[in-house]
DNA sequence: AGCCTTTGACCAGCG
DNA sequence: TCGCTGGTCAAAGGC
């Protein structure tokens, strides 16, 4: 029960953090853009902690700042199940981290609409499809890291606003060192600095844990992340 | 030169 | 079996 409350607090913290960042950023970018950045960043860190193989981030343009759902496992269930994970990183530090990361992202990523919710990893787009209904395209991205099979699908509205991000699989590596100076160098710098700190302190358990053994193994068990057929 | 995006084609699952 | 749909491949071109 205690952990449950703790998790809810964390949820509130990163949502609030997102709102804060959004308010700061709203002068420079649209509502949806800001939400996309904020929620994707925040949820991704949540994801790292909770150890998920597949989840969805939805962006709603209505009342709530961010709506988080999960695929193949419901996220709320995980919030509660995460109570079994004893050691979680300090949430206060984490929310600060999110703020840094996101604010940097807002500065640099606003023009690059093709890289929504840049989470510090490198993605290569390998496909795009107009999903049923044809109202918006869905883009497919792969993690460019060798031997990392993480993929994500990004859905956009007709105006190009991000409506949903679906991650598949989990990274078996840390965030790459800074690169891509053209569209996000500054942001990645910040993110990397942050992650180096996190690596030495908080990331040890939840971060490494999921990836290594348990995760790769569990990934195999999960029907979602499928290997390429060819 | 290397990496990325675009885009048409291909393939598998499903009804 | 056929058509639809989602996911992926790979060539071409751009940066």
Walkthrough of the structure:
The chain has 230 residues and is an alpha+beta fold. The chain has a domain at 120-172: WRKY domain (N-terminal domain of TfIIb), CATH 2.20.25. It contains 6 helices and 6 strands; from the N terminus they run H-H-E-E-H-H-E-E-E-E-H-H. The chain has helices spanning 2-25, 31-50, 75-81, 91-109, 181-200, 204-221, and strands at 54-58, 67-70, 123-130, 137-143, 151-156, 162-168. It has a 6-stranded antiparallel beta sheet with strand order 2-1-6-5-4-3, with helices on one face. Strand 3 and strand 4 (137-143) form a beta hairpin. Helix 1 runs antiparallel to helix 2 (31-50), helix 2 runs antiparallel to helix 4 (91-109) and helix 4 packs antiparallel against helix 5 (181-200). The termini are far apart. It binds a DNA duplex (15 and 15 nucleotides) through strand 3. Residues 91-111 have a biased composition (Polar residues). It is found in: Nucleus. Residues 192-202 have a biased composition (Basic and acidic residues). Residues 170-181 have a biased composition (Basic residues). Keywords: DNA-binding, Nucleus, Repeat, Transcription, Transcription regulation.
Question: What's the layout of helices and strands?
Answer:
Elements: H1 2-25, H2 31-50, E1 54-58, E2 67-70, H3 75-81, H4 91-109, E3 123-130, E4 137-143, E5 151-156, E6 162-168, H5 181-200, H6 204-221
Antiparallel strand pairs: 1-2, 1-6, 3-4, 4-5, 5-6
The chain binds a DNA duplex (15 and 15 nucleotides) through strand 3.
